[in-house]
Design goal:
The complex is a heterodimer of chains A (245) and B (332). By secondary structure, chain A is an alpha/beta fold. In chain A, 45% of the residues are buried. Chain A folds into 2 domains: 171 residues, P-loop containing nucleotide triphosphate hydrolases (Rossmann fold, 3-Layer(aba) Sandwich); 64 residues, no CATH class. Chain A has a 6-stranded mixed beta sheet, with helices on both faces. A 4-stranded antiparallel beta sheet of chain A has the order 2-1-4-5, with helices on one face. Helix content of chain A is 35%, strand content 25%. Chain B is mainly alpha-helical and 332 residues long. Chain B has one domain. In chain B, 72% of the residues lie in helices and 1% in strands. Chain B contains 13 helices and 2 strands; from the N terminus they run αααααββαααααααα. In chain B, a hairpin with a 2-residue loop joins strand 1 and strand 2. The chains are: A alpha/beta (245), B mainly alpha (332). At the A-B interface, helix 2 and helix 3 of A face helix 7 and helix 8 of B.
């Protein structure tokens, strides 16, 4: 079966720095995948390659078998990929309703867009905020508004970059619940480094280390693996290289 | 934020234009009416930048490039064709196409916002220098001499559409200018209400997010920029009808002034910059009549005071004050 999203030997080099180095992975339809790794492991660069913000130096990205390497962000989004950035990226001067409508207007007429927007806001528990200006909302609410914009067009795949950044313990727990709920309808890739959060949501985990995939396995096995612990503690793990089959 | 259909604004704008087109020629002496026509043409120019900068988020430091091109195109077309009926649409189309070409190079080349300001500014100054260096009989387009620093004093005035011999009187040209301003405003208002306009505002608010939602931000910026070019071209055509075209239309003097009008009037509004253009030009004209004080000094003080006291501009500050008064009144 063709994977929903697949990378083949994806590399992104900045001069001599090999931020991502020959990463191959495949995400199936409906999967919930976590990409983890300590700071500097290359997961954010990998995220930016997937979302069209960086053009990879080498390798291929395929979406449903179609080669989308080097596509601009808007073209990736149009394929049915919802993207949430680490720092909420929002329309601060607009209200919540207009923000979500913008996510829907490209595909639907105004009446349908409006009813879908209301449904999504309701689903995320922020229907009361429709008339609020986004720039005046608190951090947690802003995260939810961005999520509403990402989820509203019913993307096949949602890519989330550190969705719990800056969140309290309760907010993190609620986000974990939300991601599990979203996973019933969408495939999800979560880039994260919070181990507690990974434990709460993950089924399959891919561990990045120095631009390579260190290992890919079930969450329990990954979290129990001494190499992963060493990587997080900053100990030398060798040999650092692409995972051997 | 624009949500409801702007019926009220459209009706008020058209009514005001109709009333002033009827009343001012009856009230004002001719020289003041010609001044009023100049102010209105500059208000159209300010409106074009208000749209491009305030709603498209594109700081165009050279909006005068399209203004001057509109004027020159009108003059050249009117001198070469019989009558001005075709000169008007050509004077709007050429700056629009030029803006589209320049915009394509800048936005599809992913040039950053600051550099867009620098490039547009350089473009208007290049056009200024070029127009300045076209003195001599060898510089002409068909029957139209370009005239170097002197410009084209023989720019023919508008005629009744389809009747080349029937030129409009200055009173009627004022009417055309007032209605052009109102129609340009209505067009901007309708555009901002449309899907295109709302997406363009989203691009201004956050380019990255708009792109991640699937909007090709380059196309939206290009569209806004070309529309702004068309409106600035219209302003240039009107200016050519009450003064005449010359390289000063491209100059730093006007390029900077239009930015000041928009800032003082209120960035992010359409009405504010139009008012700003008219009020500040009236002030400039009044300051010019004072004997003991330099007009530049007075204007400088006014501008600094405006930036310090009402940094958001006249219209947003006034609207907010009115709303606050309204709330206080309601609380009582």
């Amino acid at each position: 079966m063709t994977a929903l999203l697949a990378t083949e030997n994806l590399s992104m080099h900045f001069g001599g720095v090999r931020a991502v180095n020959g990463v191959s992975l495949a995400i199936a339809e409906g999967e919930l995948r976590c990409l983890i790794g300590p700071n500097g492991a290359g997961k954010s660069t990998f995220f930016k390659c997937l979302t069209g913000q960086y053009k990879p130096t080498a390798g291929r990205i395929r979406f449903r078998g179609r080669d989308v390497t080097g596509y601009d962000s808007f073209a990736i989004a149009r394929l049915g990929v919802g993207i949430k950035t680490q720092v909420p990226s929002l329309f601060d001067g607009l209200d919540v309703m207009e923000s979500v409508l913008l996510a829907l207007r490209r595909r639907h007429n105004e009446a349908i867009a409006r009813s879908r927007a209301l449904a999504v806001l309701d689903r995320l528990g922020i229907a009361a905020l429709v008339r609020h200006e986004v720039g005046r909302l608190g951090h947690g609410q802003r995260q939810l508004v961005e999520l509403a914009m990402v989820v509203a067009p019913e993307p096949d795949l949602i890519i989330l970059d550190e969705p719990t950044a800056g969140m309290s313990v309760e907010e993190t727990a609620r986000t974990a619940e939300l991601i599990r709920e979203l996973n019933r309808r969408h495939a999800i890739v979560v880039v994260e480094h919070d181990m507690q959060f990974i434990r709460a949501i993950a089924k399959t985990v891919t561990v990045f280390h120095q631009g390579y995939v260190l290992m890919e396995d079930s969450a329990e096995r990954v979290l129990a693996d001494p190499r992963v612990r060493d990587v997080y503690l900053g100990k030398a793990v060798g040999p650092a290289g692409p995972e051997q089959p | 934020m624009i949500r409801r259909f702007p019926w009220a604004e459209i009706v008020v704008a058209l009514l005001l234009a109709a009333i002033s087109a009827w009343a001012l020629p009856r009230l004002l002496p001719l020289y003041l009416l010609i001044n009023a026509t100049i102010y209105v043409s500059m208000a159209v120019l300010a409106l074009s930048l208000a749209f491009v900068w305030g709603f498209g988020g594109i700081l165009c430091f050279g909006q005068t490039a399209f203004f001057g091109l509109g004027g020159y195109t009108y003059a050249v077309a009117a001198l070469n064709l019989t009558g001005t009926s075709w000169a008007v649409p050509i004077a709007v189309a050429v700056p629009a196409l030029f803006a589209a070409l320049l915009g394509y190079l800048m936005f599809f080349g992913r040039v950053g916002n600051i550099y867009v300001g620098v490039i547009t500014f350089a473009v208007t100054l290049i056009l200024f220098n070029f127009a300045n260096s076209t003195a001599g009989a060898q510089w002409h387009i068909g029957a139209a001499p370009l005239g170097g620093f002197n410009g084209i004093p023989s720019t023919p005035p508008l005629n009744v559409p389809g009747e080349p011999g029937n030129a409009l009187a200055p009173e009627e040209i004022f009417g055309v200018a007032a209605i052009s301003l109102a129609l340009s405003y209505v067009i901007c208002k309708l555009l901002l209400h449309s899907r295109f306009g709302r997406a363009a505002v989203a691009v201004k608010e956050n380019e990255t997010r708009a792109e991640l939602l699937g909007y090709d931000v380059r196309l939206y910026k290009l569209g806004v920029f070309a529309i702004g070019g068309a409106i600035a071209g219209l302003a240039g055509m009107l200016f050519a009808n009450c003064v005449f075209v010359s390289p000063t239309m491209f100059s730093l003097f006007y390029a900077a002034q239009v930015i000041i009008w928009v800032m003082v009037g209120g960035l992010g509004t359409l009405v504010g910059p139009m008012l700003g253009a008219i009020v500040l030009q009236m002030l400039t004209a009044w300051a010019g009549t004072l004997k003991d004080v330099s007009p530049n000094l007075i204007l400088g003080v006014i501008l600094m005071a405006a930036v310090l006291v009402i940094p958001r501009g006249i219209l947003p500050t006034a609207t907010e004050a009115a709303a606050r008064l309204g709330r206080r009144g309601a609380a009582r």
